[in-house]
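In the previous chapter we treated chains in isolation. Here, by contrast, the input contains three separate entities that must be folded as one system, with a combined length of 1088 residues.
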Amino acid sequence: MNYFLEIFLGGLTRGSIYALIALGYTMVYGIIELINFAHGEIYMIGAFTALIVASVLTLLGFNTLSVFILALVLAVIYSCCYAFTMEKIAYKPLRQAPRLSALISAIGMSLFLQNYVLLAQTSDFLPFPRLIPDFDFMEPYAHIITTQEAVILITTAIFMTILTIFIKFTRMGKAMRATSQDKVMAALTGIDVNRVISFTFIVGAAAAAVGGVLIASHIGMINFYIGFIAGIKAFVAAVLGGIGSIPGAVLGSFVLGWTESFCTGYVSSDYEDVFAFLFLVLILIFRPAGILGRSESNKV
Amino acid sequence: MNLFPELRKSFIASLWFMFLTFPIMVIRVNTIENIVEWRWMNLVFVGIGSFFLSWLWRYLLSRKEMGVNKKTDDQDRTSLVSRLMKNKQLIIPAAALLAIFTIIFPHIFSTYQTSIMITALIYVMLGLGLNIVVGLAGLLDLGYVAFYAVGAYAYGLLNYHFGLGFWTALPVGAALGALFGILLGFPVLRLRGDYLAIVTLGFGEIIRLILENWNEFSFGPSGIANIPRPSFFGMDLSIQWATVYIYYIVIGICCITIVIVGRLQDSRIGRAWIALREDEIACQAMGIDKARTKLNAFALGATWAGMAGVVFAAKTTFINPASFTIWESIIILCIVVLGGMGSVVGVVSGALVLILLPEYLRAFSEYRLLIFGAILIFMMVFRPGGIVSDVRRVYRFESSAMDDKPQEYS
Amino acid sequence: MIKGISKMRLITALIVSIIFFGSTGLGFAADTIKLGIAGAHSGDLASYGIPSIKAAELVVKEINEKGGILGKKVEILAEDDVCKPEVATNTATKLVSEGANVVLGHICSGATKAALGIYKDSKIIAMSPSATNPALTQSGEYPNFYRTIASDDAQARLEVDFATNVLKVKKIAVLHDKGDYGKGLAEFAKGFIENSGGKAKVVLFEGVTPGAVDYSAIVQKIKKSGADAVIFGGYHPEASKIVMQMRKKRMKTILISDDGVKDDTFIKVAGEYAEGVYATGPKDVSSNPLAIKATEDHKKAYGSDPGAFFLNAYAAAQALLNAIQKAGSTDYDAIAKALKTEYVDTPLGKIKFDDRGDAIGVGFAMYQVRKGAYAEVK
């Protein structure tokens, strides 16, 4: 039973990690129907910015807490700026173009950003400072769940709640929902569609950056390639839950995390990813639009 | 042109990029030695670079918009190459020249040139195959590399266990490719668009992971070595001649592929694919069997990948799962989209550009992928239809001024 | 009018392309000895390949200053294969086309296997500083292959002997990263444990997914299996993730790993958690005067410490050029004979090669992380 609980918690942690990244995918997809391949790179850039800021501040003699807060804030700001610029350069000119062109542009952006960081920084793994200390009161439970894992879980939960409230009740949230349903109609009712799209990218990037900082300090190291690997998994999670739906992305992430975790725990980690993908195929066969996705009936 | 606002815009862009690239370009931390390196010069380069690039960017964008607004004769909007294609007087000597060039190619250039040309031609085959699935039938396939792997492993394993030769393995590889295409096709019949993309991606990964983990079957990550090159009527050729020989084989297969794909495109199946791409519901309403058409597309597309896999195994003589990652699928997809979806000439030129360019860019090997990424974005922004976009016969009702605009298709 | 221009343009394009393609393939003079260097010089594995170029540059510079060999200067032809087999065949063909006499490389085992056939047909000897796959020398399929590093099975043997005889552990979990190198090593280790006559048994044999965001499930599984020690085949990023998660979960399981982990980056990344980890690595040569000199030269020339496999590559370059010198020609058989008979002084010690192509006198030793540095376990 204890083993089951541990595996379950492991899957939950993994799921929350995916969820923070999957959010950006699903939001962008919901608005402009684009698989933003470069989203994983935003997460990577967030982690790198945090690493750089934290190292500089530590050398300047700041204390741990202020280093953590400043690194997190700057990582979020920079990730948002990158996402904003990325949208303006690589996606905005392609609004009217075929969807595949936008996808290729996103792939190009992903390659570009990966190699930009590789060339400007390094190809080696860099140790990431432990920004979250181990709390003493967590010590008795450390063999089950560490402080970092608990922080990741709680942050994901808070993020989801805020986001859901935001989309449901604020003006901007309503504008986002309207835009995702019909861009032309939304524009006619006075919504600045370009602003809404930029804003969506920024919110997605903020979630990814927070994820980047937390995950990097949980894993303890980063390099330029982490974004791509995590990005693919998060994308799978978003589709599993029903792409375009925010609760779907979260649910999909947890389902994916548990699938992988239980497969490793009870079968074999050799086939961890095979199981994850098979499970995805199975779900999509029975629910072609994902777990929570709306299956739209196409009108002629 | 108003100089001052332009200057101001560029200046703002340059400031913005200096801010944006500041942490990553300027500061390099070595967390191992705890040293922080400040590279202020980079900031200057970024500033100057983005100043001029943003100028160029806006200039090109405005030109593109002008091009769209200034709607002139249709002919101008189709690309140079497709215009050339229509010109009968030109096409025959050009084709003849091209054919002669292709035939004498391995004799005037070194083995290395021939060798990379073979690689590029293998990608032409892959591109043409994927073009059937993505370009014609409109089914986004991100796991196409799986069929390529199936072909390569079919030859590698059949040769290892039963000593089968290249020429026997070629049809077997193609058949297995088709079989796997159908296997993938069945579960995804109901899926659409991006759901299809993710399932095919998963399928590609599953095949690769099985090859990686199932040692008893596929020899795992250490791969299969010493796969023989094709023998020439029982003779084993030296490496130079084997390369030339493979070159001719690939050229042959490519020509056959081009002819078949060209014929398919104009056939009943091809029309059905295009109809499927344009509108699934309307296509069904016209009495086209959707499931069969989709399966056809998957099977035929995968056939070429299977063949390309066999040729690949024969060329490198060594295969392991690391050659069949998702990046490979992405590159093939880039070939199709960058070249021009649905257009054979486009796919061929896309493959030649995307595969040969990195080889010739070896001198800038570090910046190769950076440039590659930038080119992808640039091409898509300024030429979203690809190098050679597909030209479809447009039937117009001449008398009406309203219908003057050629149809847009996505 | 338009027609005319287009025709002209097409013909010009054809001519230009012919000149462009043609010029790259033609003409080379045979007045230098050409040392080809192939390996990953870009991409994510570049840090394993670039040190071999630097090593060769240093060796070649020294030899050329002394007047070269056989009265000829030595010239370096460096080509990138990004550690991919399909690229490696093109790289190899390019080196052959450019007239390389001997090749130092490739870096990764897979790429090496793909390239060796081409060198074999062209009668060129290749010597790798880092390809450790046992089949390369043991299968007998690559007579033109030599290496200045010991093969994986020797390493696995050492790890298993150490675990069963020195540490006396009874239950061992064998993990790998599903890669060519890691999985091969893990399989050897598993075989050796099973044939150790019941001294120990394998309680878990699994591959972890490289680059995964979290290894807690596999760590829990190790814990459940009750293993006293983990033997891990793979590279340092995964090893440090595993050891960090084990220690964070308050597990004291011993970790024994390979020379992919015996890298200072591992200690820096895993920090305090690295303490006590065992790893096999090439025998300590830090007291060898030639090794000291090579490292010093590197610092002087490039202003940094040498990277992975630098000394192996240095030794390989020396061995190859020495063999040409001793053979008196660049003939394949003569060089092969010289490699197998003539000892050469290298930073790795005095080496020559056995019939299979493995260097005699190059082996592995066991190291442990103590107070933030690797120390040899005697």
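Residues 153-276 of chain C form a domain with the Rossmann fold fold (CATH 3.40.50.2300). The two ends of chain C are 86 Å apart (CA to CA). Compare these points with the single-chain example from earlier in the chapter.
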